[in-house]
Amino acid sequence: MNLIPLKPVSLHDFDGGIHPAENKHQSTSQPIRPVPLPDELVLPLLQHIGNAAVPVVSVGDQVLKGQKIALDHGFVSAPLHAPTSGTVSAIEDRLVPHASGLSELCIVITPDGKDEWTAHQSLAAELGLSSADALPKDAVLSRIRDCGIAGMGGAGFPTSVKLNPGNRRIDTLVLNAAECEPYITSDDLLLRERAASVVRGAQIMLDLLDAPRCLVGIEDNKPEAAAALQAAIANAAESSRILAVVIPTKYPSGGEKQLIQILTGREVPSGGIPADVGIVCQNVATAAAVAEAVDQGRPLIGRITTLTGDAMTNKGNFDVLFGTPVSHLLAVGGYQPQKHERVIMGGPMMGFTLPDTSVPVVKTTNCLLAPTEKELPLNNPATACIRCGLCAQACPAGLLPQQLYWFSRAQEFDKAEQHNLFDCIECGACSYVCPSSIPLVQYYRYAKGAIHEERLANLKSEQARERFENRLARQEREQAEKEAKRKARAEAAAKAQATKSAEPVADSASAAPASAAKAEVSAEDTERKILAQKDRIAKATERLNAAQEQGLDTVDALAKGVAKQEEKLAELEKMLAGLKSSSTPASAPAPVKPELTVEDLEKKILAQKDRLAKATERLNTAQEQGLDTVDALAKGVARQEEKLADLEQTLNGLRSTTETTSGENH
Fold it and tell me: Which CATH topology does 25-369 take?
C-alpha cells in the first residue's frame, strides 16, 4: 500500500538495537473482534504504577458496567471500574500476572449477562457546555483520573500524572505507535480501525499541555496503520499540530527514550524523565482511551489484546474486558497446549511466561503469545561469558551489560548502580545476542529488586528513628512544660505567703472569725481536691491493672503514675489536717466532730484491707517481673499498712470507750 506523503521530520538514531523476526502477520488478517463474557471477572486493585486502589463495594453488591468499584489512593494511583454489570462475589487475594506467581487483593465480579451501563456522559455535557473546544484543564485532568486511565503500552503509569508536569515547559507530545516488539499488533489494528479516536486523544492532551506539536512515531512495517493515521489527521480540526512520522523498523525503537531520540534528537538524562527535556510520551491506545473518557464519559474497562502463536488456531486481536481470565481468552483463541504448553504475556523479548493461566487480563496486557517449541525454542543452558562484547553493541541505552552482569551476579549492587543499572529498559537485546545464552535481563531485574528492598528497609529504619526522636522530643517538651507550671505555682504560693505575712495584725477579736472563715473555705477546697485525687487514683489503678493483665509495655509508666498520684493524695491529706488545726483559735471551743460508730470504722477497715491487698498484688507482680517501680510500690504498701493500723487502733479505742460507758450506765 502506498503511504500518504507525510510531513518531513529529521530523524535520528540511537545506539545499538537488533532486528529479530517480526512474526506480526499471524494476527493482522482479521479485524478486532469481541470476546464472550467469562463466568467471572477478577480485577486486581493494582494494575498501574503507584498505590493500589481502595475498594468501595462489598461482597454481594450489584454493580453496573462502568461503575467505580475502587477509589484511587494517593497522587500516583488510579481508580477501578466494573467492566460489566453483575454481582461482587468476592474481595480476596487471587493470582495476578507476574513471573513469580504473586497474589494480590482483587475484586471478583460474576456477570449477570445484561452488560448494563451506569449513567455516563461527555465532559462538555456534564459542564453544560455546547462545545468541547474550550474545556477547563482541571476538569479534563479530573475526568481522565476518574476514568482510571493508565499507560497501556508500558508499566501502566497513571495518565493524569504524566499530563500534569508541573512547572516544566512541554513543547512536544510524542505518541508511541512503534510497537517494535515481535508478534504484537494491538496498536497496529487500533490505528487501522480507530485512528480518529487516537487523533482526538492527541488533541485533548495537546490542549492540556499547551504544547505546539504532537509527533506520532510509527514503524515502516505498518503501512495500513500509517495510512489510516495520516487520513485521520487530515480530517481532524487543527491537524497541523499533529504529525505522523514513519521511522525505520528496529528493536527497541518503541522504547520511550529511544523513540524520543529518534523523533527529536533529544536524550533523556540518566535518572530523568521525558518532561525534563520538554516532552511527554503516551501510547496511542492511551490516547484513544482519553478521547473516550472526555467525549463519552466511558472509563477504562478493557483493551485490545493480541492472541498469537502457532499453538493457537484463532489468532487475531480482540476487545477484552479487564479481569477476563487468560484461560478464557486461550479458549477463544483455540489454544492447543499439546503443541507446547507455554503461554507468554507480552512479546518474546520483554514478556514473561505465565505460571498459571487463571490470572486475569489487566490494563497493560497487550498480547498473549502461545508459541510452539519449533517456533520459539527454549533457551539453551547458560555457559561462561566469553567477553565478546556483542551485548554492549546491542544495548540501546549505551550501557555495559557485561559489567552489569558481573556486578549483579556478585551482588555488588553499589557498583551496578554506579554503572547506571536503572537506565536499563530490560528490552532483552543483550540476552538475544548473547552466544553464551546468559539470561542477562534476569540478573538486572534481580539486582534492581535487591536495591529497591534495601532502600525500602533503610526508609523504614529512618522513619522509625524519626518517630523515636520525635517521641523523645515530645516527652522532653511536656516535662519542661510541667516543670515550668510547677515553678510558677511555687512562685505564686511564695508571693501569696509573703503578702500574707506583711499584712498588719488586726484586732484579735475581729481577726479570729475572719481567719477561721478563711481556713474553713480553704479546708473545703482541699477536701474537694482530695475527692478528685482519689477518683484519679482509682482510674489510674484500673488502667494499671488492665495493662498488667494484658502484659503491655506501659506497666512501668502506669505504676509510676499511680505512685505519684498516691503521693499527691498524701500531701493533700496532710495539708487538710494542717488547715483544720490552724483554723481553730486557742480560746475557741474545739469543733464537735461527728461521732464515728464501730460500724463505720469496720467498713473503713474492710475498704482499706481491699486497697492494701491490691497494692500488695501489684508489688508482687513488679517484683516477679523485675520492674523499676518496685520501690515506689513498696512505699505505697507501707503507707496503706500504716493507715490500716491507725484505723484498727481507733476501732479498738472506740470499742473500749463504748464498753466503759456501758458499764457505768449499769
Answer: Rossmann fold (3.40.50)
